[in-house]
Every structure is written in structure tokens, then in C-alpha cells.
DNA sequence: CTGAAAGCGCTTACAG
DNA sequence: CTGAAAGCGCTTACAG
């Protein structure tokens, strides 16, 4: 099957290629009647302009890039990324933008991908995940002047546009809720310490625990996987003054923690209360269902995509604060059993 | 920052643009010494050929498309897709191919996306998921002559290349294992009945149960979500002659089933044995860990991508049988408690 | 309001 | 082995 070109449309409409281009792109320079006729013919023969030809003529690539820097096993198990992607995609495809995805091994490789995308003119802009403190990707993108939106913050985003959520406030809400239930020994199993949002949560956890006079509050590090979450939980629950409540930085570790508690013969929530970040459907799959801090991740992705399209359009875009995660109490939290 | 073009490289190397093109693409027509010099200069100034210009000159788009037809909530929670994507992506990026992702609402929308991609020359080929019986996407792709590899089968793939796994054999292995443990009343919670692989598993389940003389074997339908998996499990466990073992078509439903059993006061595995398909890390997160039918999904994706690149290269490619899922026994299966 | 033409940055026959 | 040139399919000033 031969692909129709703009010349085919022009010939059938009896106009020049230029006129077809104007008609399709909603530019002035063609009468309304002609425009309608051209549009009808284009639809009839199934014409869509070659994205390569458009991109080459100085127009945009109509594509946005997303590089993911996590190993496959973590990418697969965390609902976060797929939900984010589906939100990004929904916004992009509504504007006929394509999403180009690439998995990278580390930040250097990610920067190399950005350079290549830029040199190839393959994407009009990129979405940046997993922001770190003093992230080397930020100056690299600034230097390339490749439109970019950082998903994360606040802070450490340089001059780049970004969308962020107030994790500190959400964490404080969770701690205050546990304290209100009567908990005094609260621990937190954190995600990768190199990520900015982990650091923000760690600082917020220390701040709120200090403010509430909790002296036994400790953060232990993990990497978002179930194995590490389980290991961290075993360590916490084996300690002399074991916590009566644990907050996990993601749903997968929280579920692993629940399983460890059951394995150790501890009742949840009687002996141990559990709170998870990322209120994915996983949290409601287990028994008891997990109290979780959640927000609309597809919407977060959609907002980031919208910001990026604005940056690409040349608008001046700064930071956008997204909804703060809110706590949904379920069966995994209760007042601590008096011992 | 100005993007370097082939002319910049040619000027600095003191050769024609054609020579640079030959050198970069490994074509004859340039001496080895010149080639090395050109390559060095290209690397030095960070030149990558414009993908648009390459695509327009009749070369390939160097991109492959993947349309996903599942709602965000299912896409997010099932590790399968993200694992598949990361495998696809690993293979593609090793050959400098980009992956273009689009989420679609239904098969008609998916076909429209294929038509647009084809007309826009945006991708060189596509990967097709979630094959159905008499799938309307197959003839549509055949008509477009858009290179495609179907991930699924056997059967119903028309003339398209495909990769598939023998789910019937894997299911038989699981049933035989349960029967060997002493189970006679085995149920199955199936996935979306419209999908071909669900149908294949259903037929295989009926066949092997018949062969082994299990008269109470029943398949109930679900949709891969935890809610539906839980509902189906409640129904099964409330029946007069409730099964002593259940096989679930995915990990998410199996975990939901485990949770329902616990909620109903049934011991797993003492009162109920559970087997899950898709041995993702989720299966080892719960307590007891789930016996599961698993295989290497990233590798499956990589094989599909490799097949697609072969089709794009014009090679004659048929069906490729991938590894059969194998059973990993864990704590969720045991001989049935005598009642 | 319309047409003819240049140009985007490559690839690839075609001459030398 | 190398260079000059056509052409891919668009967009967009530039004339009319």
C-alpha cells in the first residue's frame, strides 16, 4: 500500500502543496471552503503528514522523551512508573504527541541519551524522574537547552520547569495520625537515600518526630524492593525496643513488611501498625488492607506532560505544586496494644 | 547550542557530506583511514544524524511502536507489561532503536494509531499485545503491510510473525502437581475471556482435568484486577463443595485470593492451596509466598523485539516458541487437609 | 487568497 | 575511492 503524500492531496484538491499545508495546520492563506474540501480529501485518503518531513522542515518532532533509570525488576513491580506513564501518555496523545521511552543504566547514560535525542532532533523535550540533590542531569539539560520538566522537587531543579508534591506535609500527617492513635515508637523504612524525595521525607520525619517529642524515631534505608523492605523490617522488629508502627516509603516494601510481621507472629495492627506510601491497588490486595498515603499519580504525570508542552511552546514555566498525598486509613493501623 | 550537522563534520574532515554518510553507516566508498578520521570528528563534536532527515531519505525511522490497550489501573498493577517493556527496550536500545509507546482505549483506536503511525512513517514496525481470537488488528496490519510481531499465540496470528509460549503445557504441569499432592477439587480463576491466551488455558484446563478424572474442575472468569479476583475467590470458597486448590491467571488475583482466604479464616496452604501465573516479585512478598508459574518476561520482550527487527530488515520470520513457564513451589501449596 | 520555490539534513545512485 | 547532485515530503517566506 502506497502511503499518501501531501502531493496526492494537492492533486485531488486541485491546489498547491502549500495550500494543503496551510489548510491542515490551521494557518491563514486559504479560504474556509477550500480548507474544508482539503480536509475532507485528506481524511478520505487517510493522509497524515510524514513526521520526518515535518520535523525536518523546522517544525517540531511531535515527540517527548522519558528515560527511566531503574533496573527492570524494580520498574516492573512498582505501579508508580506505569501509572505515571499512562498519565503522561493520555495528555500527550490528546495533543498528538508521541512518547519515546528509554531505559538507562545510570545518570551518565541518561545524559548521553539526552544528548543523542537532542542531536537527532528526535524529541522536542524530556521528562526527568528520580531527581537527586545536585543532580548532574540538570546542568546538562540546561546546557543543551533541551526543553525539560523535572518530576520532583522542590529545589535542585535549577532553571528547569518542574512539578512537585509536598511530601514533607504528607509525612507529617501520617506521623501525627499514628501519634494520635497512641504510638510513640515509630520507625520509617526509607527508599534510596540518594533520591531527593527520600531526603526530603527523612528531614521531615526527623522534624515532626522532634516536634512531637518522639525520641525513638529512626529511619532505616532500603531500595524499594520487597527483599530489602523485608530485611529492614526484620531488623526493626528484632530490636529490643521494637517500634509499634512503621511507615514505608513505598507500597512494595510495606507489603513485604506486613508479611515479615505475620511470619514473626506479630499481629497487624494489634502489635504493629503499618503505613505505606503510594496507595496503589496493591495496598488493598493484602489482608489487612494497608493504611496508605496516596495521590493521583496518572494526574501527576498528565500535569508534567502539560507543563512540558508549555515549555516546548516557548511559554515561561516555573514550578507547579501538585496535590499533597493524603492518608487513607485502613485495617493496618490501630492503637498499639498495651504491653 | 547549535546542533552539529553532517555538513559540519564534512567541513572539518575536508570531505563531502556523502563521504561522511558512508563512513558513519559502514558503507564502502571511503578508505579505512578516512572513515576513522571522520568517526573521530563526529564523536568529538557530538554529531548524531538527524533522525528526521534519515527517515525522510528513505532510511528507517529507527523507531518501533507499542500500543497498550488496558486501563491505567491494570497497566500499573501488573508487573507483566513493565517487565515486557524493559526487555523490549533493552533489545531496541542496543540497536539504537527508539520505542514509541501509546495507550489506547480499544482495538479500533489501536488500529487508528497503527494507520497514523504508518502514514506518518513514525515507526518501522509494531509489537502487538493481548491477542484475541479472530483479532481485527491482524488483517489491518496485514493490509498496511506494516512490519509487526504478535506477542501471543499460537494461532490467530495470520501471516504475521509472532512469539509465543506453551501455556497449555505449563497449566498441565500445575494441575498435575496439585493432583500429585492429593488435590481433587481444583478451580481456576481465569483472566479476560476475550483474550486468546485465556482461552488456550481454559481449554487446556478442561483437557487435563478430564484426563485426570477431576470432575469438579471449574473455571470462573475475572479481569486480572484484585477486586474481581477477590470476588471470584469468595464465590468459590463459599460453595458447598469448595475447592482445595485454586489456580489464578495472574499474580494480582492470586494475592487477592490469598487475602480472601485469610479473611475467611482458611489456612493457606492447609485449607487452600494457591498457584499463581506470572511469577513476579509480588509472589514472594506475601505470606506464605506463592507457588507460581513463571518465566523470564523481559527475555520474552527482548525476543519479540529481535523478531521485529528481523521483519523490518526484510527477513522472512515466522513463529518463535519461547520458554514454557515452569512451576516454582513455595509455601502456598501443600497436600489438602483431610476433612 | 494562491502558486512557485527554497530549504530542512540526510542517503544514494551516478559520474568521474 | 571520492565528489556533485537529486530527492525524500514537508513548511514557509516570497511574489503575484
UniProtKB/TrEMBL annotation, chains A, B:
Pfam families linked to this entry: LacI, Peripla_BP_3
Gene3D superfamilies for this protein: 3.40.50.2300, lambda repressor-like DNA-binding domains
Keyword Cytoplasm on entry: no
Domain HTH lacI-type: 4-58
A single GO molecular function term of this UniProt record: DNA binding
Keywords: DNA-binding, Transcription, Transcription regulation
Keyword Methyltransferase: no
PANTHER family xrefs: ALANINE RACEMASE (PTHR30146:SF155), LACI-RELATED TRANSCRIPTIONAL REPRESSOR (PTHR30146)
Protein name: LacI family DNA-binding transcriptional regulator
Amino acid at each position: 500500500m502506497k502511503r499518501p503524500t501531501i502531493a496526492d492531496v494537492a492533486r485531488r484538491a486541485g491546489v498547491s502543496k502549500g495550500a494543503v499545508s496551510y489548510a491542515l495546520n490551521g494557518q491563514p492563506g486559504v479560504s474556509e471552503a477550500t480548507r474544508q474540501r482539503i480536509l475532507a480529501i485528506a481524511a478520505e485518503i487517510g493522509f497524515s503528514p510524514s513526521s520526518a518531513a515535518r520535523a525536518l522542515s523546522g517544525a517540531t518532532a511531535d515527540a517527548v522523551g522519558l528515560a527511566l533509570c531503574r533496573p527492570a525488576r524494580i520498574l516492573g513491580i512498582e505501579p508508580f512508573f506505569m501509572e505515571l506513564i499512562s498519565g503522561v501518555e493520555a495528555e500527550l496523545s490528546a495533543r498528538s504527541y508521541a512518547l519515546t521511552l528509554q531505559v538507562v543504566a545510570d545518570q551518565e547514560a541518561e545524559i548521553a541519551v539526552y544528548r543523542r535525542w537532542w542531536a537527532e532532533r528526535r524529541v522536542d523535550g524530556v521528562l526527568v524522574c528520580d531527581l537527586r540533590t545536585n543532580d548532574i542531569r540538570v546542568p546538562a539539560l540546561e546546557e543543551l537547552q533541551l526543553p525539560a520538566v523535572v518530576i520532583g522537587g522542590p529545589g535542585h531543579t535549577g532553571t528547569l520547569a518542574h512539578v512537585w508534591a509536598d511530601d514533607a506535609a504528607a509525612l507529617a500527617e501520617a506521623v501525627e495520625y499514628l501519634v494520635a492513635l497512641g504510638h510513640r515508637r515509630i520507625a520509617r523504612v526509607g527508599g534510596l537515600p540518594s533520591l531527593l524525595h527520600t531526603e526530603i521525607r527523612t528531614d521531615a520525619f526527623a522534624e515532626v518526630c522532634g516536634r512531637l517529642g518522639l525520641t525513638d524515631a529512626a529511619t532505616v534505608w532500603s531500595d524499594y524492593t520487597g527483599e530489602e523492605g523485608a530485611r529492614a523490617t526484620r531488623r526493626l522488629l528484632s530490636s529490643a525496643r521494637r517500634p509499634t508502627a512503621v511507615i514505608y516509603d513505598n507500597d512494595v516494601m510495606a507489603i513485604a513488611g506486613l508479611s515479615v510481621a505475620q511470619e514473626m507472629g506479630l499481629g497487624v495492627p494489634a502489635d504493629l501498625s503499618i503505613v505505606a506510601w503510594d496507595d496503589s491497588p496493591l495496598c488493598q490486595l493484602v489482608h489487612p488492607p494497608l493504611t496508605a498515603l496516596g495521590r493521583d499519580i496518572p494526574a501527576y504525570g498528565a500535569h508534567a506532560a502539560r507543563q512540558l508542552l508549555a515549555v516546548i511552546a516557548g511559554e515561561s514555566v516555573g514550578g507547579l505544586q501538585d496535590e499533597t498525598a493524603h492518608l487513607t486509613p485502613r485495617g493496618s493501623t490501630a492503637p498499639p496494644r498495651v504491653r
